[in-house]
UniProtKB/TrEMBL annotation:
Highest taxon listed in the record's lineage: Bacteria
Domain CzcB-like barrel-sandwich hybrid: 75-196
InterPro entries reported for this sequence: Beta-barrel_RND_2, BSH_CzcB-like, RND_pump_MFP, YknX-like_C
Coiled coil: 103-130
Segments forming domain YknX-like C-terminal permuted SH3-like: 284-350
Gene3D superfamilies in the cross-refs: 2.40.30.170, 2.40.420.20, 2.40.50.100, Helix hairpin bin (1.10.287.470)
Protein name (record): Efflux RND transporter periplasmic adaptor subunit
Ranges where the CusB-like beta-barrel domain occurs: 204-274
Keyword Cell wall biogenesis/degradation: no
Entry-linked Pfam families: Beta-barrel_RND_2, BSH_CzcB, YknX_C
Amino acid sequence: MKKSLIYIIVAAVLIGLAGYKIADNKKQQKTEVKEVAKQVDKINVNVVDVTRENINTDYSANGTFIPKQEMNQSAEIAGRIVSVMVKEGARVGAGQVLATIKRDAIEVDVSQAQNNLQNAIIDNQRYENAFKTGGVTKQQLDNSRLQLKNAQAAIRAQGVRVNDTSIRAGISGTINKRMVEPGSVVSPGTPLFEIVNINTLKLSVLVDESQIGKISLGQVVPINVNVLPEDSFSGRITFIAPKSDASLNFPVEIEVPNRGNLKAGMYATAIFKTNNGAETQNILTVPAEAFVNGVSSGQLFIVQNGVAKLIKVTTGKVFGDKVQVLSGLNGGEKVVTSGQINLDNGAKVNIVK
């Protein structure tokens, strides 16, 4: 009998504890449900603090150095090369003889032209004297004079041929490549030497159409050379193409003095300084993505005391993904940058970040 009573009491206690636990769980669940309900009423948004900043509007463009001058020096006449005076890497001046062509046959032609000239001079003198006494007609005298002029012209022509047997540098520079050896037979137009002038180099870059109006001829441009990071260079804009390419980029050339450590073909970056002074200093900006229905609308949501407020601002210049605000904000406000598509004026919000 006593054992039965004990079992009944234990069972009653267990039932009581179970009922208490169930009641406590229900109370906790109700509390959690209320908290969730509060959060469901709020819309999640991302915000940024409105601040003043200095905008860097510098524009960079990559390119490679090319020689200021380069040319393939060729022969003016056909013939066999007798001697070559320069090697690859040699520095030469404009007009310097690089190689010579055999001129034996030309010298024979020169002697013949000189003989013809002497005969023409003697004949013409005889005709001049005979004309004075009426021994020849005016036409005969004129023919004699013409023969003399032709003989003189032939001498000058042979002189040009003799001069052309010396192949001379057309520009000052360095022999980058030699394509001829003594004994080679050449013809007019055959490239014999490649000459490059790298005392001054040109950096050739492409500038986007949005930036081309911000640069000008003569502007000094800082240059960064990839393989010479410790050295500083600068150049002057000497050419801005009047027409863009198919990608709406404009070819621009910058002349850079060579201190001896630059080579044609090196990769470099030109930094175009396009800052507008006070116009880009200490200005109020917001991300372009914050605007409702685009920047042109001028509408933004700011968060005040957990509530979204739709405001109207006056915008200024656009700097990439940032927009200048001229009025409507003072700085320090929290502007919604994402989630605004779900917002109405006065909606409760939950700031995610």
